[in-house]
Amino acid sequence: xxxxxxxxxxxxxxxxxxxxxxxxxxxxxxxxxxxxxxxxxxxxxxxxxxxxxxxxxxxxxxxxxxxxxxxxxxxxxxxxxxxxxxxxxxxxxxxxxxxxxxxxxxxxxxxxxxxxxxxxxxxxxxxxxxxxxxxxxxxxxxxxxxxxxxxxxxxxxxxxxxxxxxxxxxxxxxxxxxxxxxxxxxxxxxxxxxxxxxxxxxxxxxxxxxxxxxxxxxxxxxxxxxxxxxxxxxxxxxxxxxxxxxxxxxxxxxxxxxxxxxxxxxxxxxxxxxxxxxxxxxxxxxxxxxxxxxxxxxxxxxxxxxxxxxxxxxxxxxxxx
Length: 321
Ligand code: SD4
Description:
Radius of gyration: 19 Å
Number of helices: 8
Bound molecules: N-hydroxy-L-asparagine
């Protein structure tokens, strides 16, 4: 049932939905709501896949991707591969508010964040260090370099990053361990009483990624998209594949043509599945009037959260994939 205002987010993280909802009700700013909601997950390290201390890369470092988009004026602020700053969505908001740019990356995004008053600190925790050490001890080969075939018969020596050329992409991506337990991005949509919409994402990306890797989450139209004239969409899943199809943009454009949110998200995933049948991902879309739909593939199920006035609590909706 369509209703405004509304807050929606990927995965069963009602604490993030509630943080966004309180902010929306008190400030009536959809950008504040999305920033507060995603920040809540960064602080809580939702499922270990948002915020600091998760998804260490091949060198053991956690880096963050985040984006925030204003569907009224189509302004976007984003950070990719952000190092040593915990509040990635906060930095993305500053990119939106304080620059003419859209996306800042890596160490230089950290320098910008420091100028904006954010603290520089390590994103490594005992947990992420342990993940990295366990992986190094068990794996002879890096995960995301596709011409490297792990040899299960050899004992793993000290880990060394490879500089071999990446000439083919043959490994089924599902073998890379992308599943709902270890790769969850928060994607959030907030719409106020007047139909003004904002979208945002925050994630620490893929575990054991090649250092420097940026996923779909900070890319407009890929991780999320919002347009007050239509609605918005957010994505989670295998970002290296998803970013090639701009699925959030695709879903919004299908809704512009009259598709329901459910049809629009299914269609956007089907376009990817044609090329990558074992791909894992999910999309949630909302029309400007507050009608919600979702689709998923590759996970056994997918959950998302919805908060409106008619429900005293955030609802967690389950979708079978
Ligand atoms: C990424 N899309 O960096 C993110 C990861 C994710 O559910 O969403 N997992 O590729």
